[in-house]
Amino acid sequence: MSTMDAKAISGDGEEASGTRSETLGESSRLGEINRRQAIRIAYLIATLELIFLFMQFGVMPYLAKSLGLDSVGFGYLQTTFGVLQLVGGPIFGRFADQFGTRAALILSCASGSASFLLMSISTSIPLLFLSRLPTVFMHGLPGAQKVITDFTTPSQRADALGKLGLCFGIGIIIGSALGGVLSTKFGIFVPAYVGLVGNLINTIIAMIWIPLPAKPKSDHRVTEHGTSQSGNLFSIREILHLMKFPGVMEVFIIKVFAGLPIGLFLIMFSIISMDFFGLEAVESGYLMSYFGVLQMVVQGLVVGKLSKHCTERTLLRLSVFVFAGVGLGMALMRTVWHYCIIAVPLVFAFSTLATITDSILTKAVPSSDTGTMLGICASVQPLTRTVGPTIGGVLYKQFGISSFGYLQLIVSIGLFVYLIKSKIPLTETKSQ
Predict the structure, then answer these.
(1) Are 223 and 365 within 8 A, CB to CB?
(2) What pTM does this model have?
(3) Do you find a cis peptide bond into 213, omega within 30 degrees of 0?
């Protein structure tokens, strides 16, 4: 072979190599753009679904009353909703693992549409209870968390999950206000019509812009013990199997018990705001809006910043420690202004605990099971809503508002000591 031929071949090889590099680089850039777009769409879907959900929460008591449902019956209605959400969370998560996040978000939005449709034709109490049934699969927030988990690296996850706090805050503020305005000016059923149309639009958004299939990234510890890619969708055994992974049970118990006392307080807050603080309905609404703004700022901005500089173990301990201080403050508070001050560390601890534990638990299981794990995490709040009215009512009636604070203080101190002494295996990551 001549020298000229060799140079020609060498030149062709270098050109081909350069072309391949450019192609790979372009593919990588397109992949990054698609990932960012999917995450933004997930934020949008979660925000809209939360707006419609809080709009429904604001209207439901008045709709129930107009149909002749008393306070006890309304309690049963709320308990029904809580139980359905509790049962549906893990099942929805397994559905997301087996059929992809796109299918899961479509299911959630379609379930919301069905619930609002039944609510819009609820001319009797049985129909109103029937409108709760589709909510078993209405889990837009866990669906969005699943998209974020699939399209972020472990070091980016806490920050990205934290930004869902912005969605939650927007949902509280806009949803509560919108439900009141629509029902007052146009009729009690108009929010249901808006929720129906809105969820249908959400369904179309998920169908068009969420990638298919949304495959998880392979940066988790993948083992032969993954459960969600096979087996029965409703298998309780396979769902609970995730608790056997190192650190999962410990972190989940901390997640449940650290937030339980304050969860009981928040469930009883509508009664406390009237009886203890002496607030009118509009003033209570302003206080909820203040709480929503705090959550937007803290979970959307502060937690993400901290996750870039502190390990998750440190943030988990910090949230529990702050909860102890919140408990002491709640035990001593006497006026609504005291609560406004306490609300700042309260929201910080609550948001940090929720975000960091979700991030830790999704890293502790195989990537094929992150949806199921997020579904289990999502069942914590429905569990609190289910048992909360009974336990919270007894605490408030028998021991007063300070009992919530002392319970929070005792539980938080115990968990903090446990976190200091125990060696829970955590994946230590910080965003770069």
Answers:
(1) no
(2) 0.80
(3) yes
Nearest to 270 by CA among 134, 389, 432: 389
Q: What is the mean pLDDT of each run of 10 residues along the chain (432 residues)?
A: 51 51 49 82 94 88 87 82 90 91 94 96 94 94 92 86 87 84 88 95 93 51 49 71 89 93 85 81 75 83 84 92 95 91 93 92 89 90 82 86 94 94 65 41
C-beta separation of 371 from 91 below 8 A: no
CA angle 88, 91, 97 (to 5 degrees): 140
Q: Are 233 and 133 in contact (CB under 8 A)?
A: no
What is the rounded CA–CA span in Å between residue 394 and residue 391? Answer: 5
DSSP per-residue codes, 183-235: HHHH-TTHHHHHHHHHHHHHHHHHHHHS-SS-PPPS-S---TT--TTSS-TT-
CA distances from 59 to 8, 115, 116, 359 (A): 76, 14, 12, 34
Return the residue matching tokens 């396979």.
Answer: 238
Residue 406 zone, left/alpha/beta (φ > 0; ψ -120 to 50; rest): alpha
Residue matched to tokens 């068009």:
208
Contact at 8 Å (CB) between 57 and 180? Answer: no
146 within 8 A of 378, measured Cβ to Cβ? no
Ordered domains of the chain (ranges, CATH): 33-212 (1.20.1250.20), 236-425 (1.20.1250.20)
Which among 285, 307, 332, 279 has a CA at the least distance from the CA of 177?
Answer: 285
Crossing angle of helices 370-378 and 248-267, rounded to 10°? 30
The pair of three-digit structure tokens given for residue 11, joined into one six-digit string = 């030149």
Name the burial class of residue 46, with classes exposed (0-12), middle (13-18) and buried (19+) by CB atoms within 10 angstroms of its CB.
buried
- CB of 119 within 8 A of CB of 128? yes
Which of 297, 266, 296, 300 lies closest to 284 in space, CA to CA? 266
Calpha distance 89→139 (Å, rounded): 7
* 393, 269 contact by CB (below 8 A): no
